[in-house]
Design brief:
It is built from twelve helices and two strands; from the N terminus they run ααααββαααααααα. With 355 residues, it is mainly alpha-helical. α3 packs parallel to α7.
């Protein structure tokens, strides 16, 4: 159990101390993200002060997680698990897709990055490879990293055909990564919210390890694969985000970019899939879901009525136009995320203690 703390602390230190080095490298080469500016027909929040801020900070988060995971396993003298490696595969693979998107933003000076269709294809390829691999590598009990049953707090009775399972995992991953990506619009907003989500998954995975069916089948034991290693991955992600937040909080010295937001979204989705809490994800990632729904509602309402539901979507930009300060929005949205996390953990524990 101590190695879960080691992973979190190592990731935090690597991210905290390594991010300034990345900032200097990016600044020396002028690698900064293009800032959207208002036109006569399209208004954006005033972010001119952010011009010149380097992006691609997600590289520091990914490296911190990989280093922390490796260090924890070296100290524990245990090989990595299939679940842990697959979660890192998804995180790194989607981070690579985001890195390419950031490349277009920085070098092509295109604020929207690569074409949406191309980006979705890249996400789909990584997600489908992950889904296929997650049904392989059974342990000595025949348990694979992912289950083909839809899960809430544990597997439900709805076992999916393999093709439908692939689509379901693709949907979860794509929805989560894009929700995190949409939330990453204000300094520290997505990073701080991600810390809470990964902290919740750390607690849940440690609890699942303590009540695992591998120690003996008993009522309400958890039939999850490698829960302790997933706690280690979640702690490493939480620590990396926590360290990065020092430099990403307002006024941000660096943005995580799509490199970071897609990688974190992938890691969150992997935690939900491997901990068998897929339908609990809307609470544990509540703020990200809320922001994504605001975009869906904005588009749908405009198509139906020709008018906007919000001044601007995603939701945090609406409050910027209303007149809220950036720090006020971020802190209040963090509070909302904390309430979602509390509700999710409450449901998780309530399922265990129910009569």
């Amino acid at each position: 159990m101590i190695f879960v703390l080691v992973a979190g602390a190592t990731a935090m230190l690597v991210s905290l101390l390594g991010t300034p080095l990345l900032i200097r490298i990016l600044q020396s080469r002028g690698y900064s993200q293009a800032i959207r500016t208002s036109t006569d027909t399209l208004k954006y929040p005033e972010h001119e002060a952010k011009r010149g801020t380097p992006s691609m900070g997600g590289v520091a988060i990914i490296i911190a997680v990989l280093v922390a995971y490796g260090v924890a396993h070296l100290l524990a003298h245990r090989p990595p698990s299939a679940s842990g490696l697959l979660a890192l595969f998804l995180m790194v693979g989607l981070g690579l897709v985001g890195f390419i998107d950031d490349y277009f933003k920085i070098f092509k000076r295109r604020s929207t990055g690569m074409r949406a269709r191309t980006k979705l294809v890249g996400q789909a390829l990584v997600a489908l490879c992950f889904a296929w691999l997650s049904t392989m590598f059974p342990n000595e009990y025949g348990v694979t990293p992912a289950s083909m049953a839809i899960s809430f707090i544990r597997d439900l009775g709805w076992v999916l055909p393999f093709a439908v399972f692939l689509v379901w995992i693709w949907f979860l991953i794509t929805a989560t990564t894009n929700a995190v990506n949409l939330t990453d619009g204000l300094d520290g907003l997505a990073t701080g919210a991600a810390v809470m989500t990964f902290a919740a998954y750390t607690l849940m995975s440690v609890w699942q390890f303590g009540q695992s069916c591998t120690f003996g089948v008993f009522e309400r034991c958890y039939d999850t694969r490698d829960p302790l290693d997933m706690a280690l991955v979640a702690a490493a992600c939480a620590g990396a985000c926590f360290g990065f937040l020092w430099w990403n909080a307002s006024p941000a010295r660096i943005f995580m970019g799509d490199t970071g937001s897609l990688a974190l979204g992938g890691a969150i989705a992997a935690m939900a899939i491997f901990s068998r809490t897929e339908l609990l994800l809307p609470l544990l990632a509540g703020l990200f879901v809320l922001v994504a729904l605001s975009v869906i509602a904005q588009v749908g309402f405009f198509k139906l009525t020709g008018r906007r539901l919000f001044r601007m979507a995603p939701l945090h930009h609406h409050f910027e136009f209303v007149g809220w300060g950036e720090v006020t929005i971020v802190v209040r949205f963090w509070i909302i995320q904390g309430l979602f996390i509390g509700a999710g953990l409450g449901l998780f524990y309530a399922e265990w203690v129910r009569d």
